Amino acid sequence: MNLYRPWSLRDLVKDLATGATTPTAALDRARSRTAETEPELAAWVVHEPAPDITTAMGVLGGVPLGVKDIIDVAGLPTRCGSALREGVRGATADAPIVRAWRRAGAVILGKTVTTEFAFFAPGPTGNPAAPGHTPGGSSSGSAAAVASGQVPLAIGSQTAGSVTRPAAYCGVASLVMTHGSYPVDGIVGLSPSLDSHGVYAATAADLAVAWAALSGGRPAPRPPRPPRVLLWTADPIGVLDDEMCQALETLEKRLTEAGAVVDVFPEERLIAEVTAAHPVVMAYEAARERSAELAVADRLSEPLARLLRTGAAISDTDYDTARRTAAQARTRVTALLSSYDAIVGPAAPGAAPAGLAATGDPVLSRAWQALGLPSVTVPGLRDPAGLPLGIQAIGPAHGEAELLARSAWIETTLS
Amino acid sequence: MNLYRPWSLRDLVKDLATGATTPTAALDRARSRTAETEPELAAWVVHEPAPDITTAMGVLGGVPLGVKDIIDVAGLPTRCGSALREGVRGATADAPIVRAWRRAGAVILGKTVTTEFAFFAPGPTGNPAAPGHTPGGSSSGSAAAVASGQVPLAIGSQTAGSVTRPAAYCGVASLVMTHGSYPVDGIVGLSPSLDSHGVYAATAADLAVAWAALSGGRPAPRPPRPPRVLLWTADPIGVLDDEMCQALETLEKRLTEAGAVVDVFPEERLIAEVTAAHPVVMAYEAARERSAELAVADRLSEPLARLLRTGAAISDTDYDTARRTAAQARTRVTALLSSYDAIVGPAAPGAAPAGLAATGDPVLSRAWQALGLPSVTVPGLRDPAGLPLGIQAIGPAHGEAELLARSAWIETTLS
Questions:
Q1: If you placed Cys at B367, which of A113, B231, B274, B346 could pair as Cys (CB 3.0 to 4.6 Å)?
Q2: Of B316, B323, B331, the CB nearest to A217
């Protein structure tokens, strides 16, 4: 069976709007595809027993949605992929971000697999686009559910590379929103200054529809000219494999042929510095945010226990220095983005690593996450073995609508 | 005695760098000016008994700084202008934002007067530029301390108009930073999604120096061309007095004569809607953030008690709707700011109202605060009676350096 068969959100929204399909039929399709693929994929932790399609209004009225299991959905337990949460009761209320998606019309089908407390210890989920390879993490279940077409839309969160990397590995599109766009109440987070909201769909064009519905705007019009972009190669970070290096050459060629201006990103070294500063901020804040778990660290996986212990030992001064590095870089990158539409570069070092024991390396998201800027993972490229290779596009703070329109344009050049 | 005599930060920084003055001399000047003016101004709650100038390194090494008394400074009590905080002990640690200013070299002289929990009930502080008139609030003491030249730099915070309005009323410059630029730990805040950091200095050019020192960058170069700005008149909000209407005409004339492009801001109605949405978000979050105070509301001022009670009664749905209104507007305004350098308009409805019993109306900051964008108050205009009239310039998220360079340019056209 072909597990990789993403479901077009644009088509579904159009069909719902024209009456060519109904919320009931969309729900049936989601259930049927889930029944068919879930034994191999294991993307879900719990299903909503009675999804309410009768009250689904708005642009997304009737669109099935998966929710990462660190985010509260009223009535469902928030298990966070941790034994510490065994037997926890249903959440008393929706997280504000869940309310926002419901308002846009989305119908919640259940909770999707996350790594343990959104860090590295993986869940059981497989990769629909690369069987036997990791789907990435931490928002593993949401990415796999979208890549397999169980749902056309699923949400996650990102502290390091928890949305971008799974999108890249599973061959779907993702948006990481500007830090602070929506409250993070009702989310079991790691790092208040890094935790951001994310969402998956089949394509960047689908995400433009989803973002417009969520934010209450209209999708940005088709850009009047090809974009001006800066190509970030991540060269000083030194992690790209040959296939991704090749993919970046393809990207540059396709963009240039299609009329885009592609200039060299002039701050590679700075981004490498921010990449090194990110884990300091993350560990310091995680030790404080998850102090209850730190107190019972022997019941955590080794990587998470190490993160929290490391963070507890970081000095205020080192934390301040790391934040300052990020703030300086944000100023510089924001200035660059006043002359360019986006920064484009690799979303991950390469294709999904083999095996399900680890979730791959988030290193290429760390810097952008520390800057708090929106990022779109654009699918379309593949390595010679046919595994997805993700490209990411970064834009200015709160520039999601324009960034998605540009990303959709880039997407067409890659397909 | 002329109470209004702001102290140039640029001159001080230059003199410290060249050895024309010393940190000791700067401290002496601050103490002497404070001794002279404080009996009339009442800008300070507590003075640091032994400011440490020996370790002050960095660009601002030796620059005296005042800190609003809702922000923790190690060893000093955080009294929040409230009887509930009588007898509270010294804070155990600096707030991260205080650490950041110390790292830049600033020497903390003490805590400045705030309204009760940064809401409306005023403290005793007077207005150096308009004796007998309110200095505005809530960051009253910091604005007055800078306007009188007690210190060249003081920090505050803004949830509605708590930084911008005092700057406008006292005839000094202020910067409200992009929401989320620095952590708000160690600050007794009202509304996590609105609370932002602010800073006062004599001029926008001074703030460019301060921001560069804080963020570790260099001041943005002198802009290569006059700015392109959108003129926001706040017309649908309907609160401007005649003097401010006149001032906006003067602003437009001066900008145009100096070569700026001044276009009509096309979203007046949208900003009026966000202005109405802001208090919903603020009250809802304040009731939750200050739940301990809500529990003893009879010991609060009437306006604060009313805010918290109102907020407790706001439904999730109304809160979500208000946040959504702001999010939509942020998208639209961010798109506009990709074609313009700044939005310029009134910082307050007019000059400082007479009397110290109330702090004036923050209404013209509400929308920009809900959008989380950086805002600079530019001094220079006066009404026919000689009272200061403030102009504000709003820029894109994280565009502080550029916005301050533009604001300094605007400032020169007004002087």
A1: B274
A2: B331
Interface touch A324/B183, C-beta < 8 Å: no
Give the pLDDT of residue B223.
82
Task: Please answer whether residues A284 and A294 qualify as being in contact, where contact means their C-beta atoms are separated by less than 8 angstroms.
Answer: no
Question: Tell me, what amino acid is at A70?
Answer: I
CA angle in degrees (0–180, nearest 5) for A169-A172-A178: 95
Q: What is the pLDDT of residue A170?
A: 98
Q: Where are the domains of chain A?
A: 9-215
In chain A, the residue whose alpha carbon lies closest to the alpha carbon of B194 is: A180
Which residues have CB under 8 Å from A391's CB, separation 6+? A247, A251, A344, A345, A346, A347, A377, A378, A380, A381, A410, A414
Q: How far apart are CA B5 and CA B125, in angstroms?
A: 16
Residues on B contacting A at a C-beta cutoff of 8 Å:
93, 96, 99-100, 103, 178-183, 192-193, 215-217, 220, 316-317, 319-320, 323-325, 327-328, 330-332, 334-335, 338, 372, 396-402
Q: Do B217 and A396 touch (CB under 8 A)?
A: no
pLDDT, mean of each 10-residue run, chain B (415 residues) = 96 94 96 96 95 85 97 96 92 95 95 95 96 96 98 98 98 97 93 96 98 86 90 96 97 98 97 97 96 92 95 95 93 93 98 95 98 97 97 96 96 94
Does pTM surpass 0.90? no
Tokens of A287: 């030790």
| Structure tokens, A301 | 């996986």
CB contact under 8 A, B397 and A334: yes
Active site members of B:
68, 138, 162
The residue whose two tokens read 């009437």 is: B302
Structure tokens at B135: 């200095």
Q: Which among A182, A193, A327 has CB closest to B216?
A: A327
B103/A324 Cβ within 8 A: yes
Structure tokens at B214: 């804080």
φ/ψ of residue B158, rounded to 5:
-135, 130
Residues of B in contact with A316 (CB under 8 A): 93, 96, 99
Can you tell me the distance from the alpha carbon of A80 to that of A72, in angstroms, rounded to the nearest whole number? 10
Pairwise CB contact (< 8 Å): A220 & B193: no
pLDDT (tens digit, 9 = 90+) per residue, A75-97?
A: 999 999 999 998 899 999 999 99
What is the pLDDT, as a whole number, of residue A28?
A: 96
pLDDT for B54 equals: 78
CB neighbour list of residue A274: distance below 8 Å, 6 or more residues apart: A325, A326, A329, A366, A367, A370, A371
- What kind of architecture, by CATH, is found in domain A9-215? Alpha-Beta Complex (3.90)
Predicted local distance difference test score (pLDDT) of residue A24:
95
For A212, the closest chain B residue by CA position comes to: B328
Q: Most distant CA pair in chain B: distance in Å?
A: 60
- B182 chain-A contacts, CB cut-off 8 A: 323, 327
For Cα atoms B328, B181, B378, give the angle at the middle one, nearest 5 degrees: 80
> What span, in angstroms and rounded, lies between the C-alpha atoms of A414 and A255?
8
Measured in residues, chain B has a length of 415
Of A183, A320, A402, the CB nearest to B193: A183
The pLDDT value recorded for residue A54 is 78
Nearest to A99 among B220, B320, B332 (CB): B320
Pairing state between β A261-264 and A228-231: parallel
Residue ranges, chain A, pLDDT below 50: none
Query: Which active-site residues of A does the annotation give?
Result: 68, 138, 162
